# Entry
Amino acid sequence: MTSSPINVAIIGAGLSGLSLALALHQQNIPCTLYERNNAPLNIGGAVMLSPNALKVLDALSVYSRIRTKGYNFETLEYKNGDGKLLEVYEFGSEEKYGYKALRIYRKVLIEELVEMLREKGVQIVFGKKFVKVLEESEESVSWEFADGTVGKASLLVGADGIHSTVRKYLYPDLKPTFAGGMGVTAAVPTEQLKLPPGYHIPVTILTPHGSFVIAPQQVDGSEVLIGKQKRVPKDHDRAGWDAISADKEALVKFLQQDTEHFPEFVRNAVSKIGHGKINVWPYYIVPKIERWTSDKRRIVILGDSAHAIPPSAGQGINQAFEDIYIFALLLGQVNKVDTQDALKFWQEYREQRIAKVMDLNNQIELRRMTKEEREKMPAGSMHEIELSWLYKPNFKEDVDKWVATKSKVAA
Ligand SMILES: Cc1cc2nc3c(=O)[nH]c(=O)nc-3n(C[C@H](O)[C@H](O)[C@H](O)COP(=O)(O)OP(=O)(O)OC[C@H]3O[C@@H](n4cnc5c(N)ncnc54)[C@H](O)[C@@H]3O)c2cc1C
# Structure
């Protein structure tokens, strides 16, 4: 264990990195963020935050600043093409979990986090690309940036996303796996849909011809995200995906395809789509990896770098917020517990929850299958979805309890 003061270098100023910096600041642990771009990454329009992540953002005093900057809602309905309600899926509930879900533009969230870090004097160095670790000792780690400069800290955290360079130190050959599909989404004005009065959104409409998602965004719900998934038989390189993203007409056509089998408001939704409002999300995952920390525990990966997961339950970012919060809580206790033990507990705790999210993803995918596809699945594959374990976590209590058992052992 080290009881010498910790200072942390965070690679990547995405949502994981920025929120980690806030959480460390809360624990009085100094840190610096390094981001390769000249501004934070802004991909993919709006994101959905569920109560587990909002509890973290509340503890970091972020929630009160963003709650009114996005669309608050509780449930997503699954309906068939005839409008019959098939299932109601909870994304949040003030009564049951303490928070409604919040759909918020990634840019808005990032800007708020950057502003909070600025107010607290936490440094973000933009245009600084991490290249490789130079040396890891029992006390510190040093690394190189693309401009040839060298950094040194007692801990280096790779919050550098699914294609992480920091991860290469732990797994030089690991590449994210292509999951065989992509999401194509667009933002359109809600009024364009001419929804029947009282029709509940967000909704996923399931038909034998595929599913179609409609989810409100903007504070007043005046805009909706519309989207479909597409199976993609083979992976593409960066240039290939860029070409797919750039061909807006083909993407509009894909969104319009088969809509004759959907209600009229879906045809209205796809009738006019601005090219600048279309997003493509290729689905990659990071296969389950054994170690999120190096042997000497001076190098750590988290967020998408450690566990990019499929999008079905919308938990990618939410799980990253869980990572950073528990990580910072534990680092805040290293005067009481061994750092190695703390990081081991952190990874085990997080892995258990991610395994349950993967099961939840599977359950959601089963519900999106056609009847024929579902019938081919082994009997008993589908079970009822229960969400309180996900949405009502006790992160702080769990960490305090673990620290108390360790402190007793030490005493
Ligand atoms: C189009 C799209 C839409 C999505 N929508 C949703 C959604 O609605 N809900 C959801 O839960 N998830 C969504 N996801 C997944 C979600 O974006 C990720 O789970 C989340 O962004 C992970 O955050 P992160 O900070 O770990 O990584 P990232 O957001 O990828 O951030 C990593 C940061 O590290 C920086 N970086 C990378 N390499 C280096 C380096 N060598 N040196 C310095 N900096 C570096 C990058 O520039 C970036 O700023 C979406 C993903 C995509 C692509």
User: Anything to note?
Assistant: The first strand starts at residue 8 and ends at 11. The pocket of flavin-adenine dinucleotide is lined by residues 11-17, 34-37, 40-41, 43-44, 47-48, 129-130, 159-161, 165, 279, 281, 303-305, 314-318, 320 (CB under 6 Å). Residues 179-284 form a domain with the D-Amino Acid Oxidase; Chain A, domain 2 fold (CATH 3.30.9.30).
